Amino acid sequence: MSPSPVLPDERLTAGAARLATSHRGRFAAETVQRVITDSYEGLAATARVTTHLVILAEHLAADAWTP
Quick check: 66 pLDDT over 90? Predict the structure, then answer.
């Protein structure tokens, strides 16, 4: 197993923990952390305004599992 990525912000870490808790039993915490990291990096790559980037990444990651 590869190590979990280091998240760039403690708020993103908290968001990953919230998502991991809400998806416990469905997805491993490492998977949730990778999805939220990928969401954050994807948004940050083109963001002009970063004020709400962390919460947007959390919402984008959560939407990945919404049918």
Answer: no
